[in-house]
Amino acid sequence: MPFCQCLAYKTSSVCSVILVGFLCTAGSLLTERAASAQTDAVDDHDRVINELRLKESEMKKLLTPAVFAALQRLEATRNAFLDARSSEQPINNAGQAREAESEGEDEDREWLDCLKKVEKGEPPNSLIDAGNFSDWDARLNDAYKAARKTLAEECPETPQSGAERCVSPEILVNTERAWLRYREAWVQMGAVRWPKIPPDKWRAWLTEERWYQLIDLSSPLIKP
To answer: Most distant CA pair in the chain: distance in Å?
Structure first.
């Protein structure tokens, strides 16, 4: 039974009817605002997707064949990594579903920003030093080992019927392999678009990003 009808059904006095009217109006306004906000968010994401498609079409005409081919490889490995990455975030309730949807929208916006920088010749990793790669690589290896240990303890190979979905060590391994292919695709892209930038500068940038993802799956001792 709708919110307003339910209140009116259970109320008989004049004062209560007035109160019901107030509550119904307030409840309706809140519902309308929530629906409007959700619609705006969907429309905004649709605009981002449409802009992405337009930008990809434009770049095919503007970039050299070698750079565009590298960009296509990069996009393919990115999509494969994001698909694998989604398995690291099991959805067991509505809150997790909304969080995953929001993260997907953020990823599309970030990718659009990257495409714009590629088009302008601006490397997206300009704040990272190539000399930091070895340090980030060591930290990533520690987080990866900790994550595998944690997941092996928390996600049994044969979960009980009805149990919440969890992230298995196998999922982590597959995601890490997909991420490595994605990282090296950026290195290849950098080699043709920004040949003066050292390969380890790209690796340092992406390894730092992946480390922050892994610490969410690792022991609290690994977190900063």
So the answer is: 80
CB atoms within 10 A of CB 107: 13
pTM of the model: 0.72
| Token reading at 184 | 């090296």
> Residue 95 corresponds to which tokens in the numbers above?
């809150």
pLDDT tens-place string over residues 23-50: 455 455 555 554 444 455 557 788 888 9
Question: 56-60, 62-66, 144-148, 199-203: which has the minimum mean pLDDT?
Answer: 56-60
Q: Looking at the structure, tell me whether residues 14 and 118 fall in a common domain.
A: no
For residue 33, what are the domain limits? 1-62
DSSP letters for 56-112: HHHHHHHS-HHHHHHHHHHHHHHHHHHHHHHTTS---SHHHHHHHHHHHHHHHHHHH
33 to each of 3, 21, 45, 105, 172, how far by Cα in Å?
16, 18, 18, 21, 40
My answer on whether 113 and 53 are in the same domain is no
